[in-house]
Amino acid sequence: MATTEFAVHGAEHGAVREPVVNDFSIQVATVNGSGSQSANNILLRTVFQMGVPVSGKNMFPSNIAGLPTWYTIRASKDGYIARKKEIDFLIAMNPETGKEDVLALAPGAVALYDEPLKLSELRTDLTFYAVPYDKITAAVCPEAKLRKLVRNMVYVGVVAKLLGLDMAEVEKALRKQFATKVKAAELNWNAAKAGYEYAETSLTKADPFKIERMNENAGKIIIDGNSAAAMGSMFAGVTVVTWYPITPSSSLVESLIEYMKEYRVGSDGKATFAIVQAEDELAAIGMVLGAGWAGARSMTATAGPGISLMAEFAGLGYYVELPGVIWDVQRVGPSTGLPTRTAQGDITFVAKLSHGDTKHVMLLPSSPGECFTMAGEAFDLAEQLQTPIFVMSDLDLGMNNWMADPFEYPDKPMKRGKILTSEQLGEAGSFFRYKDVDGDAIPYRTLPGTDHPNAAWFARGSGHNERGQYSERPDDYANNMDRLARKFETARTMVPRPEPVRNEGNEIGIVAYGTSHHALVETLDQLQNEYGVKADYLRLRAYPFTRETHDFIAAHKRLYIVDQNRDGQMHELLKLDVAVPEIAKLRSVRHYNGLPIDARSITDEIISQEGK
Amino acid sequence: MATTTAPPPQPKTNRIGLTVLDYRGGKTTLCAGCGHNAISERILDAFYEMGIEPERVIKMSGIGCSSKTPAYFMSRSHSFNSVHGRMPSVTTGAVLANAKMIAIGVSGDGDSASIGIGQFVHLMRRNLPMVYIIEDNGVYGLTKGQFSATADLGSKLKTGVINDLPPIDTCALAIMMGATFVGRSFSGDKKQLQTMLKAALSHRGTVMLDVISPCVTFNDHEGSTKSYKFMIDHEEPVHDLNFVPHFNEINVDYDPGTTTNVTMHDGSSLRLHKLEKDYDPCNKTEAIRRIMESHKADEVLTGVLYIDTKAPSFVDMINMTDEPLATLPESVTRPSREALAACMEELR
Q1: Using one digit for the tens of pLDDT, what is the confidence trace for A91-101?
Q2: Across chain A, what does the average pLDDT equal?
Q3: Is A477 exposed, middle or buried (0-12, 13-18, 19+ CB in 10 A)?
């Protein structure tokens, strides 16, 4: 199984080649469970520390050990951090996939391989470097059983020499990686140095790829979206967290547990939070809603299969009007699909999750920075709107490492919504749980424990009147349903506005969301530089769509809606939301092979639909 | 000479000055004679007699006839009629959010032993502080009389259908899973049920009470093992219960040879006067063995079948701050600017 797709580009073997500086991709092909993640992180960090914009994408199997895994590092002087289709520099460590990986490379690429694999016999149009990893590893690691883990660090050293990475930066990254394991750090550092020395003495540089220092990353951090979401939730004051382990969302709660232990335990040793590993996702969301009902900021994190199980409660949360935040770190489904590959596959499902007439608010983060801020916005919206809020991340965003600007401290007060105190109840005299008092269709609620005889209300589904009393009267039901629909219109005015990345009156408008953004930025340049096509671009940040989205659609002749799913799910939702004459303007660009979307695929598709 | 009129009789109040009317709920919509109505009465009485403020109580339920009943007692308490079989999770969330609330959950045999058995066993396993009542009638009422998973082997429906699958004994299951106060009673046994409920409100941990509550419409006929008649003939109490609440004077006058005294979490005293001389409600293995035996003997064993007042509850294990999480101020739930700076520094 090759994850690289064939693409022909420039350089022919043997021709004089211009150096390619800070603009290429490295792919490490290994076996999962071999400890290569540390080595790959160190490579990524080294490039980052040298000030060169960089991104890393892990393509791993649903398996603990022994199956192929690929890690792609892209260095880009132009700041493009989406996946790049073409692989320029292959580090072939996996005997199972070595042949296929090498055959998939474009002419002119580099293959650095484990000597016994004899991969250089396969092609004549690549630059090959052979490294005897076992021999080098044995020399620096006397303990045989540790060699498997240290072996990968040898390629870090070899690559450092071949690409011109600063070994001081490698050492810094390595010591950070093994910060708590001094012995392991020493052993790994020796392996990296041995690799470097081998390359220095035994390999002759014959490829054009090179990393040179830049100054693009000053002050930046490296973080995955899940950790950012966790941190954002902690600073947003989350108190009840529930979860059921599921890739790719598990690390969100696992990071949260670590952060909360560090920053949310009082000096008396008592926690200002509760985190529960539930028996399943049914229970996870049930706990979230129970906690929300009782007044806590509560959340859970899951992926598609968990969302399926949450459907019933999502509807109840909508009808009872309870706050709660649900992170859907989307992946390809079902569980026996490609559970470790990325997708934006749950968009239409979540928009209407549950039986009956339901509509849900979705937030659409595209970066770790937005995972951090939207974590807080999600809680504010959930409590203000009294409804479950879904944050639609994905595996690419959640589990991969991204460069990011440091997060800003959220200094605005939390918005806790319309909650009546016992004093207010005393003044009001009566309390109608489901009455639209303010004209925004958002009713007032009271929390259990409010010390007033009129405080209590009976939480149940849609069968109630404005007082919250049991009712099956047709007019009560219709009245409530209409108010809920109006509340969704209120939500439209409160959710995060879309970002007009470019809006300069061009004919073509592109609409994208989530991780597609990073490919889109590059696509805009490709369209302009390669085809002379200038397009505008609006990045959605939430559903329901706001005024700005409708204006953007109205202002363009042709619109391309970019989705990372087969059915063009956001395209479908937009078609339902715009005026009939606008529907014909909406075209769909879809990417759904399990890999993060890349700019080239979008560019090619748009150009093809443009008839160019 | 001025005439004096006798003051109007003061209504009787409990220790916090509330009358029994302050604990009443809406009018029941269940069938006349339904066991569930009697249980609602006992619950109401128990809260009244224990002098618990209704505003400190949350009433939780799933779906089914039983789950409608929280509407019929204590209207001054917040209540949550959730989804079928999922009351445990909603209650868990609510109790974690505000551990000062007293949670009572009302479920049924379909809600607990079938669709909700996953959440049921995990609730027991966590020992969440709450009183969980199964109003057990062996049939689905709202869907008109299908067997539930607690129906006994050989039990007969009105239509003549015989149950051929073994019942799930929710008490044995609850004991095995970790509940720390497990009892079985009968809606028609006023004294036992009420005593058990008062003791339940003094316990810290999961109380699971399986209360046989005949369905007069679908399962109260000849051939049913959950009928009033069957219960009157087959109920086998393991002890007589006596409860002395913590706010009354607790004397030590009992015979340890015939009576087991259990001091509850709040200081109340539960006296179990042995009817079966070897029954030890503190012995898990023996309790399950005796329940299993009772099945063979066609007995419905009632009483506090198992109790452990020492095991830590889920809330204790989490070691949360004393103030409810729900109302913690921002100054406590949002770490400082310096904390964020430290997080950022680690990622550079």
Answers
A1: 999 999 999 99
A2: 95
A3: middle
A456 touches chain B (CB under 8 A): yes
User: Do A448 and B82 count as a contact with CB atoms less than 8 A apart?
Assistant: no
CB-CB contact of B74 with B26 (8 Å): no
Q: Please name the amino acid found at residue B49.
A: E
Question: ipTM of the assembly?
Answer: 0.96
Residues B66, B214 contacting (CB under 8 angstroms): no
CA–CA separation, A195 and A159 (whole Å): 8
> What are the Cα distances from residue A137, in Å, to A154, A166, A172?
7, 21, 21
Q: Is the CB of A284 less than 8 angstroms away from the CB of B339?
A: no
Predicted confidence at residue B79, as pLDDT, reads: 98
Can you give the pLDDT at residue A6? 37
What domains, with CATH codes, occur in chain B?
A: 20-327 (3.40.50.970)
A449/B326 Cβ within 8 A: yes
* pLDDT tens profile B19-77: 999 999 999 999 999 999 999 999 999 999 999 999 999 999 999 999 999 999 999 99
Q: Looking at chain B, how many residues does it have?
A: 348
- Note the pLDDT of residue B1: 53
Beta carbons of A242 and B335 less than 8 Å apart = no
Interface size, chain A vs chain B, as Cβ–Cβ contacts under 8 Å: 216
- Could you check whether the bond before residue B70 is cis, i.e. omega within 30 degrees of 0? no
d(CA A69, CA A591): 21
Report which DSSP code applies to A463.
Answer: -
Other beta carbons within 10 Å of B229: 12
| Tokens 């001081």 -> residue | A168
**Candidates B53, B86, B344; nearest CB to A406:** B344
Distances in Å between the alpha carbon of B188 and those of A507, A539, B38? 78, 65, 7
Q: Do B71 and A470 touch (CB under 8 A)?
A: yes
- How far does B287 lie from chain A, in Å, by closest CA? 27
Distance, in Å, from the CA atom of A520 to the CA atom of A500, rounded to the nearest integer, reads 13
Cα–chain center distance at B15: 23
Closest by Cβ to A448, choosing from B70, B78, B325: B78
For the cut 60, the answer to whether the pLDDT of residue A1 exceeds it is no
In this prediction the pTM is: 0.96
Q: Which residue segments constitute the domains of chain A, with CATH numbers given?
A: 20-210 (3.40.920.10), 223-404 (3.40.50.970), 422-494 (no CATH), 499-609 (3.40.50.920)
In this predicted model, what pLDDT tens digit does every residue of A295-347 receive, in sequence order? 999 999 999 999 999 999 999 999 999 999 999 999 998 888 899 999 999 99
Is the alpha carbon torsion for A191, A193, A199, A205 positive or negative?
positive
* pLDDT for position B256: 81
Q: Which residues of B231-259 are buried (b: 16+ CB within 10 A; e: fewer)?
A: beebbebbbbbbbbbeeeeeeeebeeeee
